[in-house]
Request: fold
Amino acid sequence: MDLDVETTQQGPASVLTLRGEIDVYTAPRLRQTIVDLVDGGASKIVVDMEKVDFLDSTGLGVLVEGLKRAKSRDGTLSIVVTQDKILKIFDITGLNKAFPIHRSVDDAVAAAVAEG
Amino acid sequence: MTTLASPPSDGPELDLELPAKPAFVRTARHAVAALARMHDLPDDVIEDVRIAVSEACTAVLPAADDPDEAIPIRLSASAEATRMVIELIDPYSRLEREVAGAPAELDTADLPFDRALSLPIIRGLVDEMAISPRQGHGVVIRMTLLTEEADTES
Reply:
């Protein structure tokens, strides 16, 4: 299983829908997509990880970079996760405190809208 | 002091040699996960195994200056009903003496994992770890993951 990255617009938010596995081989594709979005002016990014089957530290590193990049342009990057196996990785690294984590894309978009 | 579980007696059931390239890390973790499934290990342990293998293989990759000249990744694994033992050869790291124990108890400087993200993951998932100098060059990283049943017995 590779990694599919699809970008759609939901109101003011750019929603990145990920499907597949995020590791040292596939993470560069995710990194480039986030860089392109931020550099292209996207200020509210929602990363939907509902269909992600695997995540390791390489993928986490890319998300942290993306968060820093978005914040440096006064933007936001939030995550949508409900799978326990993915949440566990955020929990044991302490990154559950660094990212806004939502249970659905609708919740994440609503939170992004509420932030103004 | 932590007493390490000895590896299963009949030698590794899985012995892999893969090109030290990012595309093959997935192959390594899928093969080891298949072995864990064959032994009916619980799903949560299989998931931890996949991540531990991915972290260990990824830790070896950046040490290769020229990916085309990199020494292949060598990995072996054995499983029993309550545990899985994974060994990976890191041909680039150096170590004077063996270090072993629960990852949370080891000096992090001895562990060949990225300090920021990879190390906390390994510490959170792996029950026992041993890193031994290898004859010639490099080190052998041995990771043991136990089921809850095994944790209760110990």
Summary: The interface with chain B takes residues 1, 21, 23-25, 54, 56-58, 60-61, 64, 85, 88-89, 92-94 of chain A (CB under 8 Å). Chain A is about 40% helix and 30% strand.
